[in-house]
Amino acid sequence: MSKYILSLDQGTTSSRAILYDQEATPVYIENQEFKQYFPENGWVEHDPEEIWNSQLEVAKKAISFLRNGVENVEAIGITNQRETTVVWNKKTGKAIYNAIVWQDRRTADYCETLKREGKQDLIYKKTGLIIDAYFSASKIAWILDNVDGAREMAERGELTFGTIDTWLCYKLSKGKLHITDPSNASRTMLFNIHDLKWDEELLSIFNIPASMLPSIVDSSGLLGKVDKDIFGKEIVISGIAGDQQAALFGQLCIKKGMIKCTYGTGCFIMLNTGETPVESKSNLLTTIAWKRGDEVHYALEGSVFIGGAVIQWLRDGLEFFQEAADSESLAEAADDNGGVYFVPALTGLGAPHWDPFARGSIFGITRGTSKAHFTRAALESICFQVNDILKAKRVDFPSSINEMRVDGGASANNLLLQFQADISELKIIRSSFMESTALGAAFLAGLGCGMWMEEELIGKWTSDGELNSSMEGERRQKLVSMWDKAVQRSINWEN
Ligand code: ADP
Questions:
Q1: For the whole model, what pTM was predicted?
Q2: Which of the following CATH numbers is that of domain 4-243: 1.10.10.200, 2.60.120.260, 3.60.15.10, 3.30.420.40?
Q3: What secondary structure, in 3-state letters, does the chain show?
Q4: Could you read off the pLDDT of 200-215 as tens digits, one per residue?
Q5: 307 C-alpha to ligand 1 centroid (Å)
Q6: Could you tell me the distance, in angstroms and rounded to a whole number, from the CA of residue 430 to the centre of ligand 1?
């Protein structure tokens, strides 16, 4: 009988279920969006029950696609939006507040206070993270301090915390599992990435009782079981990883020095630094990629806030074209950017600049500037931002970085990828699989349940083409220095 891995990809706007056959070919994809709640300016919430119900529904649809239904499912892999925080009552299994989403800024002031108190060094040394509202710790603290009776309940050991992987495992096991993997734990700001334990000193800084925290399991292996009432048969959960780490695994960047970039709404660049965590001199994050048995892999991570979103803005905001893909032919109508540089700091700048006060700016406009130049500058801006992170990684990580695997919606754009190859002097390899995240969870699960061996995986990943750098050094330097100048002029605009 054919065997399949069911990959559950719980994202920020939708829940997906993808079935992979024994060749790791996706044979069925089901997707369901769920509601985003914005109760106040800068706040972003999800209803944990809506997350669960949408995930359950797509999983059931996927299973019913199989001839023998659940009998065909060998194992489940889970990947998820990271940092998003759920606190629930251990007895009733009900969340006491909505899930606070990674994008939520309500704890920004609290984080500033921690910085002023000089906690950054200690927190960075232990967690590899920069103090920010992004991570789970300040979100848990907010729930305990703002939901009626929460603090007392937590102190009595009646509340429990989880990121979305933990929440899904809890629901899938009908309350028996309270687990997370190190890739997710490393995004909470409560986990010591060196000794792989929840850290008492961090728990005391954020005033969070240790009794709330899930147990740590590997990212791959026999991690737990889905209760038989959920799908009609017990299924093993054998892979768990946060979305970007799963994408790194799905790109098979499993060796030290391998790097991937996902070009979606934002861009996420992850470098596998092998079994030692690398400290960044340029404000990149150090994080756990995955843990498999005794082997822990670390990664250096940098994110661009506005990546493909800049093309979305040209499409919807300025109505330059109908489809994002049309940006390529429009940009091709110009030989070059015509001296136009666009810094898309629409929501500030991420790594390595980290400036919340920067704003979008366009430089070099003349009477000759056309829509084509503008569009080209927008596409180039995605690459320049990714290049800034690559430059930082090249400083932090001594081995040479000569190629990068790419995926995500905007990686369909050849002009963009060619410019990236040129500007960053890299070979760009586009994966044939657009869903690297779900594939990564499937790979981890397939390895974890013994359906695949690591050597076999190599043959299951295929490239959809390569682009090589063909730009002269002098031109590259000129472009990058003009970009640097444009960034400097955008920085601190709002302050
Ligand atoms: P996410 O998973 O973050 O929602 P996707 O991976 O689906 O994003 O990619 C969608 C993003 O990529 C959008 O912001 C869109 O504007 C951009 N995009 C999609 N296709 C292209 C293209 N051919 N050229 C440039 N940008 C594109």
A1: 0.92
A2: 3.30.420.40
A3: CCCEEEEEEECCCEEEEEEECCCCCEEEEEEEECCCECCCCCCCEECHHHHHHHHHHHHHHHHHHCCCHHHHEEEEEEEECCCCEEEEECCCCCECCCEECCCCCCCHHHHHHHHHCCCHHHHHHHHCCCCCCCCHHHHHHHHHHHCCCHHHHHHCCCEEEECHHHHHHHHHCCCCCCEECHHHHCCCCCEECCCCEECHHHHHHHCCCHHHCCEECCCEEEEEEECHHHHCCCEEEEEEEEHHHHHHHHCCCCCCCCEEEEECCCEEEEEEEECCCCCCCCCCEEEEEEEECCEEEEEEEEEECCCCHHHHHHHHHCCCCCCCCHHHHHHHCCCCCCCCEEECCECEECCCCCECCCCCEEECCCCCCCHHHHHHHHHHHHHHHHHHHHHHHHHHCCCCCCEEEEECHHHHCHHHHHHHHHHHCCEEEEECCCCHHHHHHHHHHHHHCCCCCHHHHHCCCCEEEEECCCCCHHHHHHHHHHHHHHHHHHCCCCC
A4: 999 999 999 999 999 9
A5: 8
A6: 15
